C-alpha cells in the first residue's frame, strides 16, 4: 500500500457541507466507497476534508504490508496511529522496537501479524509484540537456522496466547525443532490451524516419529503397548486444518501428523516435493483423519490419477478438491461422482486425462457443485451429448426415457445439468470433428452442439463467473470413409437399444438445429444465422449466435472469453447490460479504439456504465 497519511488536513480545507458529513458518518456507505477505490486514491481523497479524513483513516491504516515505507516520516505517524492497524506484515528491515517501546507501546489491536526471522537480537521485541496483542488470531513465524539459539521465550508467548487460531511457520526454514512444535501444541488451547510453508527439509526427526511403530497398531509387547498409550496422549483434536505448502517431506511424516490430528477437516499438500505414495496411503490417511472435507494436492509430485481416485473414495464427505497440475483424470472424476454427493468445488486446471463424457457425468450428478475449473480440459460437446443419451434410463421398450424439462424452444434434451447452484464455471468447449464418426457428425452438427450447450448454460441461473473458450476443429486428416463402430460386437438386444438411441439423437438434434432462436431481441435486429460450418459452433456472444438464450443468467458478474471471434457490438453490450444487470467485467474481447463500432461501444459504456471493465485477453485463463 502507499504510505499512510503523515498529517491531518488543514482546517481551511474542511467542508461546511453538513449533508456530506452526514453521508460519511454512515459506516456502510464509507465501506462501499472504499471498496471501489485503490489505497493510494483513498489516501489522497482523505485530504479533501476533515469528514473524509476521519471516515477513511481506519481504512488507510487497517493494513501495513512489508514495510517498504518505514521511513522517518512514516514511523512517526505509525506510532501515533498504530492503534488502528489490524494487519501488520513486517520485513527483515523493519524496526519492531518502534511498536513495543515504553511507556506507550503501539499496535495493540492486531488480528494478523507476520514477523520477520526471529534472532537472538530481536526475540524480546517479538515476544512483547505478541503479548501486547491479546486479540491476535493469525501469526506467522520464521526462525534463523541455528540450533544454538534458545527460542523458549517466544515459544511460551505463542503457546500461552488464548485467542490465536492460525500459526504459520514460514520463510524457507530448513529445519524445525520437534520440541518447539510440541511445546506450542501442548500449551495452546485456542490453536485450530497449523501451516508450514517453504520449508526445505521439514523435521529431520518428524513429530510422532518416535511413535511410528505405535501408529501402526502392532503392539506385541508391553513396551509397544506403552507406546500406544503415549501416542494417544499426544493427540491434538483441536487442530482441524493442516497446510503443508512447498514442503519437502515424506509420506510417513504426513501420516504421523494426521495421527496427531484426528479431527482434521482441511489438508493441503500443495507443491510438495520428494513425496511418493504407496497404494495403501489413502486408506491409512483416512484411518487417522476420517473427517477431511477439503483436500489440496495441486502440483504435488507422484499424484497420479489412481492415487487421487483412491483418496476421493476414502473421503466420501469431501466438499473441495484442488487437483490442478496433477494426473487427475477419469478415474478421479468418476470417484467424485460416485462417492462425494456433497462436492462443492473442483479445481482441475492443467490436469490431463479428462474426457468429455466424465465432465457430463459430473455436471449431471453433482447437485451441490458451486465451482468448477478445468481450463485446459477440452470438452467435445458431441461426445458430451452422446454420453447424455447413453446414460438415460431405459423404458421397457428399450427407448431412452424422456426428461421432464424442455429447452426454450420446446425440445426435450437429455442429461440436464443438475448443478443449479453453480456460481463459477471455467471450461473449454470444442467441436472436434476428427474425433467423431461420420454418423456422429451427421447426427450432431455444429449448430446443434452449440444450441445444446447454450441451453444447458441457461439453466445455471446462479452463475456469477463464466470463463469459456470455444474451439472448432475441422476435419483435416479425417477420411470420408464410414467409420467402423463397435456395433458388430453388440448383442442383438444391445444393437436394438443403440439403434433406438441413435434415432432419438438424430430427431432431437435436428430440432435443436432449426434456425429459430425464439428471441425477440434477435428478430429485432434482423440478423441471420451464420451458415459457415467453421463458425457454426463458436459461441461469439452475438445475437446471431444465440446470445438471447442466456438471458436467465441474471446473477452474472464476470465474463472471461478466449478463442472467441470479435462479434460483440453495441447491440450486444446493451443487451448484456439490460439482461445481466450485475455484469461488471468482460475480458478477452479485442477492442480497437480506432474502429467506429468499438468507439460506439466504449462511448456508450462510459456514459451509461462508467464502472464497467473491458480488458483484452491473451487466450490464457488468469490463475488468480
Automatic annotation (TrEMBL):
<feature type="compositionally biased region" description="Acidic residues">
    <location>
        <begin position="477"/>
        <end position="492"/>
    </location>
</feature>
<protein>
    <recommendedName>
        <fullName>F-box domain-containing protein</fullName>
    </recommendedName>
</protein>
<dbReference type="InterPro" id="IPR032675">
    <property type="entry name" value="LRR_dom_sf"/>
</dbReference>
<feature type="region of interest" description="Disordered">
    <location>
        <begin position="474"/>
        <end position="500"/>
    </location>
</feature>
<dbReference type="GO" id="GO:0019005">
    <property type="term" value="C:SCF ubiquitin ligase complex"/>
</dbReference>
<dbReference type="GO" id="GO:0031146">
    <property type="term" value="P:SCF-dependent proteasomal ubiquitin-dependent protein catabolic process"/>
</dbReference>
<dbReference type="InterPro" id="IPR006553">
    <property type="entry name" value="Leu-rich_rpt_Cys-con_subtyp"/>
</dbReference>
